[in-house]
Amino acid sequence: MKEENNHLQEKLERLGEQQSRTAPVADPNTLDSVTELELEVSQLNVIKDHHEEETEHYPKIPEDQNQSKMQLLQSLQEQKDMDELRHQHEQRNARHTQLCLENNEEVKCLQKTIEPIKTRFYEEKQKIQTGN
């Protein structure tokens, strides 16, 4: 854009030089060309100013992106921590369930062992009571 702007500026200067060397009689085509070129230069300057304003905001974008990235990383770490805690909790629950099942089996085995002993004890108690 600068090159185009410079090119138009040079063209305008050359036309100005040509006008100063020629007779004071102005050619309407030359005046129209000069006016047209001045208008183009003005429009290009407005566009250039607009682009410069836009580029002022660009340095802020990486800062915002870095801040957002850090927040996402922190959130991801928190999620990983929560997943790890959830996994540990599930493992403890599974172990607890397993221990309860083993305990129930042991209680059943002990009850099977105690039952004949109770029966024998009851029978011997009956013998003792009837034997007296």
UniProtKB/TrEMBL annotation:
Q: State the compartments where it is located.
A: Golgi apparatus
Q: Where are the annotated segments for Disordered?
A: 1-31
Listed A to Z, the keywords are:
Coiled coil, Golgi apparatus, Receptor
- State the protein's name: Thyroid receptor-interacting protein 11
Comp. bias intervals (Basic and acidic residues)? 1-16
Q: Which organism is it from?
A: Saguinus oedipus (Cotton-top tamarin)
